[in-house]
From TrEMBL:
Protein name: Carboxylesterase type B domain-containing protein
A Pfam family per the record: COesterase
Domain of life: Eukaryota
Carboxylesterase type B domain ranges (all copies): 16-201, 273-402
Amino acid sequence: MALPQIHQDSLKTTFTGTSQSDNGTTVHSFRGIQYATIPARFERSQPIQKFNEAAVDATRYGPRCPQMKIDVRHLLRIPEDVEIPEEEEDEFKCLNLEITCPPLDQTKGPFPVLIWIHGGSQVVTFCSAASGICDPTKLVADSIKYQKPVVFVSINYRLNIFAFGDGKEKNLALKDQRLGIEWVRKNISSFGGDPNNITLAESKVQELGQPSLREATVPVLIQALGECNVNSMFLQEDSELQDWESRPEHVEELMIGDTEYESVIWRNGVETHDASTINAAFEQNSEWGPQLRKMYQVVPTRPTASKLGALDIINDALYAMPVEVISEKLQANQKTVYKYVVDQHNPWQLSSRSHHAVDLLFLFGTMDFSHNPGAEGVGQDMRRRWVSFVNGDAPWSEQKRYAYGPFGVCGEIDEGQFAGRRRTRHIRALREAGKEAFLPIVFALAAGKISLLN
């Protein structure tokens, strides 16, 4: 069978891709397409306007940004005999993207586009298409079966110290992502995508003993990140981000939600706290600290309850509450918001609950769930509703929330049922207290305690 080819006039090249099949439905993939260049370490990336080659091999995944090695099977409870391929890394060739689309000779576009920005706390690439976990083949194939085809694009970008820089340029990861999105808008029509119908789905380093961060070798930088236990990075202050909270919303529709146990990635770290340390964290705010401590069952003589309470307030402050804040902000601006909860337990270890990132397993459906029909059913339902949303259809009633699980049961829930799944009273208290009151408590409990090896 001949490999799929697409000619792109503005880039002056022809891309040769690869073909995959899922249960008899064929999709085409174009991998490792470079969208920008990096002139030098910590420098702002520059968009690629055209290729020097008349033909580009897009059959292989491009390299990712250098990073610490993390076995994602730990957190996701993927069986140990499932092999995750090792991914190539390159500091200067990591700005590439992958496109998975319906065969243009079998379907007629343009189709809506879903751009996927991978997670990983801006430090690692968590579950890429190259890893096999977030391979979009099944998602795109299902969209064809549902007669609602979509084009899927995933973007690689700089991470960790290579994105954080040395102070001259800031937030390089965000700026790389912006160039990737701009590339999609300019060029996706050649791959059957509609550029006007896009859905977007998203420290401190020790002395290195070398002249500067710019001159240090890649292995030295990665070693330093590991030795310093740098496992997450925040956005830096930047004039381009100033007053972001009050800027007009450009999003017309939003689908947003969380898993039931997002704070699992702090579990092992919080276990190192004793009850007195956890209780002391709540003493940082004299007005709200005592009330929040009692609400979260943090008691000096109850170490187990205190550790669970610490995980709960981290979960609510950093995940559950932002869902409500962001939703209300958009709704106040007359935007359409669809809220959901993912409560289906890990398909291999039910005792791990519906934890952080488990929804990726259901959405992409790349793992064998034949032992767990409930998990398989949740994945099918999730893909169907994501595809509907990307196509501009309502995935469920805007007046309701949608629940994925538990026990393989999916459906709309009202606010009373939602209150049985999340700590709604606690979330209201956090919002009333304000971030000035609760963030110092959360940081005292969570700082330096996060790990993807929970």
